[in-house]
Fold these 2 entries.
Entry 1:
Amino acid sequence: MRLYEFEGKALFREFGIPIPEGRLAGNHQEVHEIARALNQPVVLKSQVLTGGRGKAGGIKFADNADEALKTAEELFKIKIKGYPVERLLIEAKFEIQHEYYIGVTIDRANYKLVIIASGEGGVDIEETAEKYPDKIFRKSLSVKQELYSFDALNIAKKIGIPSEHLKTAAAIIVDLFKMFKAYDAKLVEINPLVLTADNRLIAADSRISLDDDALFRHPELKAIGIEKRHEEGEMTPREQQAHEWGIPYLDLDGNIGMFPGGAGFGIMGNDFIHYYGGQPANFMDSGGGPSPERIAKMLVLLDENPNVNAIFGARFGGISRCDDFAKGVVMFLKEHGLSKPIVMRMTGNMWREGVKIFENAKKENPKLFEKVEFHGIETPIEEISKRAVELAAGRGAR
Amino acid sequence: MRLYEFEGKALFREFGIPIPEGRLAGNHQEVHEIARALNQPVVLKSQVLTGGRGKAGGIKFADNADEALKTAEELFKIKIKGYPVERLLIEAKFEIQHEYYIGVTIDRANYKLVIIASGEGGVDIEETAEKYPDKIFRKSLSVKQELYSFDALNIAKKIGIPSEHLKTAAAIIVDLFKMFKAYDAKLVEINPLVLTADNRLIAADSRISLDDDALFRHPELKAIGIEKRHEEGEMTPREQQAHEWGIPYLDLDGNIGMFPGGAGFGIMGNDFIHYYGGQPANFMDSGGGPSPERIAKMLVLLDENPNVNAIFGARFGGISRCDDFAKGVVMFLKEHGLSKPIVMRMTGNMWREGVKIFENAKKENPKLFEKVEFHGIETPIEEISKRAVELAAGRGAR
Amino acid sequence: MAILVDKNSRVMVQGLTGGAGKFHASRMLEYGTNIVGGTSPGKGGLTVHDKPVFDTVEECVKQTGADVSVIFLPAVAVKEAAIEAIRAGIKFLVVIPEHIPIHDMLHIREEAVRGGTTVIGGNTAGIISPGQANLGIMPDIAFTPGRVGTVSRSGSITYYVADTLTRTGYGESTCVGLGGDPVLGSTFDEILLKFEEDPETKAVVMTGEIGGVYEERACGVISKMKTPVLAMVGGIFAPPGKRMGHAGAIVEGKMGTAKEKLEMLAGAGAHPCKTFKDIPETLKKLGV
Amino acid sequence: MAILVDKNSRVMVQGLTGGAGKFHASRMLEYGTNIVGGTSPGKGGLTVHDKPVFDTVEECVKQTGADVSVIFLPAVAVKEAAIEAIRAGIKFLVVIPEHIPIHDMLHIREEAVRGGTTVIGGNTAGIISPGQANLGIMPDIAFTPGRVGTVSRSGSITYYVADTLTRTGYGESTCVGLGGDPVLGSTFDEILLKFEEDPETKAVVMTGEIGGVYEERACGVISKMKTPVLAMVGGIFAPPGKRMGHAGAIVEGKMGTAKEKLEMLAGAGAHPCKTFKDIPETLKKLGV
């Protein structure tokens, strides 16, 4: 999960990494007060969980508090890649002498932590990496290793930090690496690390991504407002609803509601729909061993989505049990009701029990199953995919 | 440096190691209040930095607050191995089902951390270790290694902790080891770790010794009152004075003031005095490269000690410089004055400059040097030792 | 024959007394898996499904001769459980739980390499050598003994592939779930090498997925293998995954899109498949 | 000949621009020690006593061929400085500062063993191979080239022993200060073995001290040495040292009193001496 710039900078401060003087503002009056207190030219930085904020006009400068107030009023009105600007980080402006890049991430192919540094920091760092790989310095370490000052000093030297700043830069690199480990990070970046005209080294921006799954180890983060969230950006209302229910869900552009079991077939099922000429309306993952309630909620999300013409269902019971799945479907049919046609296939663990549940419910109330086409292991999943495309295209029930 | 029991227990609490309910009292009224609040039988534990406190009557029980008050009044009057009881730890009493021992220390011969555990905890653990080495379980780890729960569980099993308490005991062992590393300890002991009659595991006592030289890494300890101190017990007034001046110094029983350079010869010089029939009045170490002021203070300590009949001085300039040494001696002679005879030898780094300083000072005021017998590299140190013994025995100046 | 597990494997379950452990152990036993015991710290001495429970893996190994272990424990306990198994000499370890912290997986991997243990997972459905042993949470309905190996990052895909192989008469030698997490105990290349060494495995179906770097790592091995490899990659039509900052882009370069992965695998000599029904068609062409 | 350092050693100083580093470097140079450079992070490019200063040991080693280093830095910086030297390939390292945290020394020792570096100190006066090289803070006045090696935990004792050997015409091959700290980079036995291998060293004077466990460790080696060992132990009349809790007593057993140490050393074949003047008398008897 990605942190806001101001959150990342709060962690930088905790680890002794120098950041610009500044404060967070939630409205333009606060901006005015902060700028007045700083009493010098300031930068106003929109706090949104997406990249390209500078190019989108989300970062502005102001020479004094009144100008800052005016600029803030404008910024609070804009959207960046669709995300409204709700908070601004107001910081003292500084003159740039040079921009460096320092990042730490995980090299998954080699199971190492890797420190990446460059003397050419800033937004074009990826381009630099591609065109001039020599300008990027890397050092890999095992997760058990410590980064020593002399290693960090070496990195600082290699990216051309001037002699008098080597020790400061090395301390920043060591602290960044410590922070990466201490908070179970997936990514920490200082980009740019600025050498100011008045010869200070400052982390001008922060980019941090933490491992959701390790958040339990860091209850102290909750105290400063850092809680589990999406990797980037904000959510559509339906994504928001799914998030609250704990269901991994993404809206897509098509008209077939995807109701698969497991993330793996969740992804590949979407390809199948494409192969047969359809367009999925969403991506969804049931998670391991979903309860009947969860299954029912997944169907609610799809049934209430006006873009959805038909629903594609697939369940191969592994850790998930077909009886729980069937119970959830029946619960949905009874309590919510189905307004779109659905075609689905169910097999795997406890499939016999699942089938019995369907049969009993159907016997009780056949109307519930009017729009349901139900298959077992005898029908290949390709046939189900093809049928879902037909249903969505309005080629109706057979 | 050794911690008080209550300080050690505060660190236990921080690391999640269960301790008895209780509080520290500085006078008998506080004892009364605490015992009243606990509202159950209590134990009153004298807080002194020395062992054998139980056998010396420093631990008492009381059934209620009034009895605790009376007992406290008595305890505040006693001395334990010469140390007055100034604070009492008042804790809820518990019934003992079994006592275990768990300790972590450094195995210097093998450069390892070692966890020691026994199913026979309590004050006789050393005897147990000697007579029944099988009852002591040890596990060595490198300073870089982590102690895992399963290792700790294994230790807990080996010392006979009952099944239902294994996980709790393992957690205590893991936490104790973490604490050992986190605070740069030389020793941490829970003795006894008590399994109470009502089936709780509790650290009934704490014994902790931290590395003075690593205190700079733990400024947080200062906040709870843990500062640099002697390993054990309190100091004589002269030791206290020396401590304030930062001079390692110990009072001994003899009459020869020992003024050697370096801890190594500080110890061996004492043997030499013994070989020639004398008795040193102290042990002292100048520390590396002492300033003239420090040299002068060392002499003040000896000259003002009424037990001292004569002073034995030796300086082999290494990191210490003979010129600084000579300056310090002259400073002392001028500003304080020498009341006892001194015999000393000086050689090593900058000895020529040192000799010149003595000669100039003597030329200026020969009276200052009346009681000083001064030698260079030409006289073996054995002769100086012998002479110091003569002087202390009143066999006067030659 | 099979890889990693067979009917002679002596299998233990870490977390045998827990809900999931107990449930799936009974399923595994029903399938005929040779489960010899399990662990649950503090519960040593109990039995579950008539199998002995120990406090530590070390004891379980000593008493039962276990050489394979399956972990059914909460994610927070997996790091230590896995290291315990590795240090106790377990040679093959199946890590079922999901949501294991990534840094923990890096620790586990390091210990595994040092200890010579093969780890699969976390977040895997497990492994099955049909007719011999079923370790994890896979439903046995889809599987039948046979001559094609499968390796996948996804449990559901494994079922569909096996379902297809079973339906078309090929059957499976062993089906391996690498697991769905971003950092895994084993990689495609490592498992492919084991299939290459198994004389009974006549072809391998490898199913990858958008994101990550494990498919790319496999290319070097595939190009040297004699056993034919069929490759599917899920997410061809998925929107491109977000990169983790500049650092992610720099470290992983152009890796990660499903289309590129499939092309690289094909370039290395794998036979690409679009949907499951392409698998038997390809196998037929290859004469397997 | 000599052990550990001689006139061909290429010596660097870590902390060359600091007060102590600069002062003692000049003394060492005056003695004829082959100092080739030094380090001071952030001050690379300067020179001190005409010797180049580098930011890192790695650079210094590359540029000057340094193979021996002496550390003159505050105690808090020693851990990293020592590990830096070891990783940069320094084969012999002298750690002068005192008050180094014990846990830091354990780290250093581990790295040293792994890197094959001999470390002496912390809290050592250093090492001198008279007439060839003087590393540390020892005054040269006491030393003269000769045929007896010395090893001690104390600087001042080293001076007195050398003073005695010089005065009586034996002279010294190499004098090693192990250091006064509770945990040291090297132990008596390790240094004694080096003397045993040196054909020019005809006897070794080892001076120990009350407390610690290093004298006891030496016994095994002494009993196998051909070169005679003379032993002194300081603190025969000192009050017994305090044990560190029960754990200290359990781990170190009966070790530690000076009298017991001297008896153990004598038992292992060392020749005990009481005061310095016993040294030449013993050497004479041994025909050295």
Entry 2:
Amino acid sequence: MSTNPSTSTAFDTARAEGRAALVGYLPAGFPSVEGSVEAIKVMVDAGCDVIEIGMPYSDPVMDGPTIQAAAQQALEGGIRTTDLMRVVEAVAATGAPTVVMTYWNPVEHYGGSRRTGRSGVELFAADLASAGGAGLITPDLTPDAGGEWIAAADEHDLDKVFLVAPSSTPERIAMTTAACRGFVYATAVMGVTGARTTTSDLAAPLVARTRETTDLPVGVGLGVSNGDQAAEIASYADGVIVGSAFVRALLDHPDDLPGGLRALRALTEDLAAGVRRA
Amino acid sequence: MSTNPSTSTAFDTARAEGRAALVGYLPAGFPSVEGSVEAIKVMVDAGCDVIEIGMPYSDPVMDGPTIQAAAQQALEGGIRTTDLMRVVEAVAATGAPTVVMTYWNPVEHYGGSRRTGRSGVELFAADLASAGGAGLITPDLTPDAGGEWIAAADEHDLDKVFLVAPSSTPERIAMTTAACRGFVYATAVMGVTGARTTTSDLAAPLVARTRETTDLPVGVGLGVSNGDQAAEIASYADGVIVGSAFVRALLDHPDDLPGGLRALRALTEDLAAGVRRA
Amino acid sequence: MSDTQVSRYEADELGFFGEDWGGRFMPEALVAALDELTDAWRDAMADPEFVAAFEKICREYAGAPSLLYHAERLSAQVGARVLLKREDLNHTGAHKIRNVLGQALLTQRMGKPRVIAETGAGQHGVASATAAAYFGLDCTVYMGAVDTRRQALNVARMHLLGAKVIPVESGSATLKDAINEALRDWVASVDQTAYLFGTAAGPHPFPSMVRDFTRGIGDEARQQCLDQYGVLPDAIAACVGGGSNAIGLFAAFLDDDSVEIHGFEPGGDGVETGRHAATIHAGDTGVLHGARTYVLQDEDGQTVESHSISAGLDYPGVGPQHAHLAAIGRATYAPVTDAQAMDALALLSRTEGIIPAIESAHAIHGGLEVARRLGAERGPDATVVINLSGRGDKDMGTAIEWFGLGDPDKVTAEPVGDPDTDPRAEDAEA
Amino acid sequence: MSDTQVSRYEADELGFFGEDWGGRFMPEALVAALDELTDAWRDAMADPEFVAAFEKICREYAGAPSLLYHAERLSAQVGARVLLKREDLNHTGAHKIRNVLGQALLTQRMGKPRVIAETGAGQHGVASATAAAYFGLDCTVYMGAVDTRRQALNVARMHLLGAKVIPVESGSATLKDAINEALRDWVASVDQTAYLFGTAAGPHPFPSMVRDFTRGIGDEARQQCLDQYGVLPDAIAACVGGGSNAIGLFAAFLDDDSVEIHGFEPGGDGVETGRHAATIHAGDTGVLHGARTYVLQDEDGQTVESHSISAGLDYPGVGPQHAHLAAIGRATYAPVTDAQAMDALALLSRTEGIIPAIESAHAIHGGLEVARRLGAERGPDATVVINLSGRGDKDMGTAIEWFGLGDPDKVTAEPVGDPDTDPRAEDAEA
Ligand SMILES: Cc1ncc(COP(=O)(O)O)c(C=O)c1O
Ligand SMILES: Cc1ncc(COP(=O)(O)O)c(C=O)c1O
């Protein structure tokens, strides 16, 4: 049983302040394990309410080129799932609710071969909880295929953040939100991650359809790259989820972490102002 | 009607001397048009009784690599059928009976397109006769396909030298010799032209089978390269036909016609001695 | 096909074979598309008109039924009856045309004007471009940039056939990155686009759907064997990359308990070297490209690179139905090394005048081993059907390198790759 | 085949068609071998067992009957019914397998253990090596040394199939030199050796014999057309190199006076440029490789070099029966340029998903022109059978060059070679 705060507490706080929460994403191990910790701390410090730590994965079907490039750099740097846990631990220590976002196989395979009979899922949940993690976002696991994870998350009192999409039927949205804990992740465009210049007009109706089924906060990804877009989304959503733009800030400063961190801070502040402007 | 001597006269002379005739082959235009005339004159001078002048042809299915190389050199030098006639004229002027050996298409095509309706064959026979040529050896024309040539040759009193081979049936040998004039060409090996170190044991039986059908002299090709081989063949044939060995003598002296001619003379003398030794 | 029965070998509603294998581990954004596809496929397979139209195209355009060829000289050598299912004679030279024609016909039925596909060495890309040309569909093929450079001939084929080829620069710029990129395209374009998946892997319904479109291989072979020899085969054999040709053959025989079923996986340099793609034999359970199956992966569940001389088998996953068949013991899967496959390629070429795809050569090697054993046990009437999934023309470059033909300026006057000796031991100049 | 009748289209005893064409202009040393072959062939064709054995091999190994495919999209474009005879689906990818299987079967019947063959680009060499492997015959292929270097893939194929390949260095070191060299081998080895000639040319009996072995093309097409459409075609079309695929198609229709017969010759850069291989259209009568026919030659009767983008059509002679059919007006022969053929290749690829051999693309261009005319005259039921003599895989290198695909590092994301425009006018990078 974890005693880590659920992400929902951060959404509650934001709602109490009459604004949306800012959810920031960065892959663990990018630009290095230590660097990712440092960077995320800057994001927390400059206004992110919730942190998503990505686990880099060899076959990221949902990621756009920006995040994939960062994840690949992390993989080439030798990132391991145990490193992810270390990053979670360091970030959670700041007090910001910290969730992991990962493709499914590293979870299922956590701790080695399934042929040994051990359940990677159970072990992953236990280790995540003891590292201070709030839960897991599972981009390629839907509740109907997620029985084992749901059981383990419930066992360890972890957030289960599943995704809804513009193409989801009402039935599926209801089924998905019923299985969620923490918040619901609304993917705002039919497409992949990546910063865009205008936000999707698919997002608002999706949030509305989602809210019909749940009282959980609804965060909206993907494609936000500045405070104005954040403000726009914050006008109808409970959380604004930003990923590629953070990654880009660091990618734009190769071999210059201080420069990257400065850019990251400026971007976070712009976005944090945005979610307060709505 | 030509008044050129038939090659048979040369065989008669040799027979009267109790020996076989030496028949020498060289392609027209090799190593050049003038060079071929010079070379053949050396061969006549040094003891060839009958001269075969080859017409180089683009697709010489019966020639071995030595003769093909010479013919190709001549073609690359621009040899034309009219040049062949000039060479014949110059060689025939020596008094040695001179036959042409050629693949069929240049004869059929002589004087240009058949689409004009003119018969190349008739024209070729006429020009050959007036150049002093004694007749024609036709390696890829057999009497059963040679009606037009036979008529033209008869018209112009030219030798018709067809080939017999070890694989020929008695019927075909009879048919072939019946169509010959001048001499009969017995191809001594089942194979292509080219100097060999021992002569074929197919030759003697072929000559015997040929003699059963005709009184014409029988010349034996291919593969003779020295006096001893010539002597061996001369023991059972009326003529010893030598080609590749002469060509080789010249090919062995590239860009050195005088050297080639010396070698040619020595070879001819050796062969001429051979046909007298039997 | 119309009489496919729901058997214990079918996947359940969620796409799981035997509860554990397959399923659909995919972004929610694609679920609607996959559901739509599942419905359309189920509906089509139950519609005699669709089934008839599919069979007609296979027959009149692709050349089905492919021959079941009695390889008499090979049979004499191994002491058993060896029958080759000649998928190499199909239009475009492999079993793959069946799958793409089925999926393209379904696309047309669904009213979508565009198809996308991933491709590794280019075989599935060429097949997809072919089917798209046939049906007048717009076609985009994703192909790793490394592969577009290695396989310029196949890129040219796709271009001629009217397809767009998009070189994928991300990741390792090979097959799995092309799959990722194609899935991304699909997420953004599902309304207009069908994703023609190249093998019997991926999320539900692909493993079942691709099997349905390739199962003509086995249905035909089973009938041909009965018609021509009056018996069922004692064993059947196929190579297994993603598993489409194998499952296409196996499906018809699953309920024939007397028939041994053998899949042959790419053993690369030898499983013990770690350089292989023998996923079932030596991989570990995991989730890849949307399905739970066997995967080549490291301790953290990161996919590791596979190795095979055969581009078409060089895949770190495998179709989930094969994982299931292996797990329950209905089929056995064994590795065949690069060297064994290349020997089999030379053997078949020289003995029967058929140059197989290197993929198929894996099945030839493995199938002949099975035939030898069964011949010894049961006599020369023992019958083995081997799926000759494709022709080897595409593989001549590899064969030249492997057998040391090398410099074309130094062509040899002698045949090479004597199957009786180690081909690499021979001097090509001999 | 068994009911081939002696008609006015047959050659006489000496192998002359219409008294003037064909015959046997060959060294006496080969006459016995040619006579033996003539007898064996006549005897075999009159023996139902041989005919049945040949048909069985064609059916069970080579894939005959090849499909007669209704190209619906092409038909719609030209306003007539276009039927493609799918010889590209045969084993080894062209009509040529029929010929070599026939000749190799005859070799076996004659008790000879060895075959030889000439080859240009390598197609006939590969087919011969295939047939030799199938029958367990020793095989030697003569190939110009220039060609062995240009066509290293085909050399490798022959080697894999167990054949010896002898690079011919003499002359221009290309096809005609290979023929010369093969004939020389034959003169020296006739007892043990059969010469598998690659096309319906050469001395009697080759033009008639090769036609008999390829005439399945036309016999099948005629029957298929009747069965499927209840009518004979209005016209038939084929490309003409040496003439084997064309005569194989034509033979069955010669006595059907209502059927127009069209041969399409390689027009190269255009007949007017002199760089072509349109032997009948623009050549002159002469004797080449043992037969009187049309020949590309200079004023002295020396063969001149032919030019075609298609290696298989790049021959300065033509089978004598075609010369005869042209002379009597039963068939017409017209040139198709390189550019027209390549456009047709792109058109067929994109419209039907079939990449034809460049040889066959000549027939596609010419046949579609005929179809357009007949469609206009007789309406959309006007039916044209075009022989798709082979598949285009072997020609991708040429296509890449022609369509300017160029550097594989710069693959384009767009299709190329739009058949509606001059393909070379397009920028491959577009
Ligand atoms: C001829 C051939 N066989 C087999 C395969 C392997 O695929 P699968 O395992 O899906 O049949 C391929 C893939 O390219 C192939 O081209
Ligand atoms: C596919 C194809 N068609 C046609 C030809 C031309 O030969 P023929 O005129 O003898 O049919 C060739 C020769 O290589 C060929 O490969």
